[in-house]
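Running low. Got one?
___
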Amino acid sequence: MNSKLKRRIFFDLLILSYLLFSYYAFGKWWHSSVGSILIVFFSYLIWKKDFLKNTGLDLNLTTIIKSVILAVVILLGSLLIMKYIAGKQGVIITYTGGKNYYHDVFYILNEEIVIGAIILFWMVDKRKINPLAATAGLAVFFALIHYVFYRWIFNDRGIMGISALITLFLVGFVRNSLILHTRHIGYSWALHFGWMTIMFGSMHIYSETNLRLTELERFNTYLGSVWMVIISALAAGLTFMFGIKKVSYKAIPDQ
């Protein structure tokens, strides 16, 4: 078996591991961490000594500590923002057990590796796509894939509002810029985790009916809020001015 075929098989197994073990395909809260182990394992088989660079996991202790601190700050900010929006919609946010939050840590890590660093570094380093184009293009895909899945694929089907899609694009732009600018997923993971832990890791209930908000309702309620559109637009604008315009990268050589 030649090396290209082996790498293709390992890459297919990496993607399969991401799809099967990042979410609740088998209903176990700890499966996302199994997915992380498999993704790292197959990444090593594909890229050998460069697997940390290709997956955005090239992190030192200082960066890890900063990422954790940033995640806490964003989590607290997300809680304040969502509580404000929820209060105006008659929604109560309550907290679930540690299993949900454990799941959030690793499924978000898997997303940042597979549909973050690996794709972005491939586009910019290997395909030589302009970093700004790669950042914006993947952000568009990030928003549209949410619309497609909730419109036609997921059990919880419905239409995601235009304002929620705009926010998804803007947040995706910030996240992609962070990955390309820093060459790791530490800060993008912190951004993603700090928000999703509150929006999906916690429980959201209509106070009058005691019914839970569906996933789609959470997207439309929080990301569709005018406040989130404004906040994400400001963040994307600042990112463009001070981040992506100055982005530089060192291409990772082919194996």
Observations:
- The beta strands are 91-94, 203-206.
- DSSP finds ten helices and two strands in the chain.
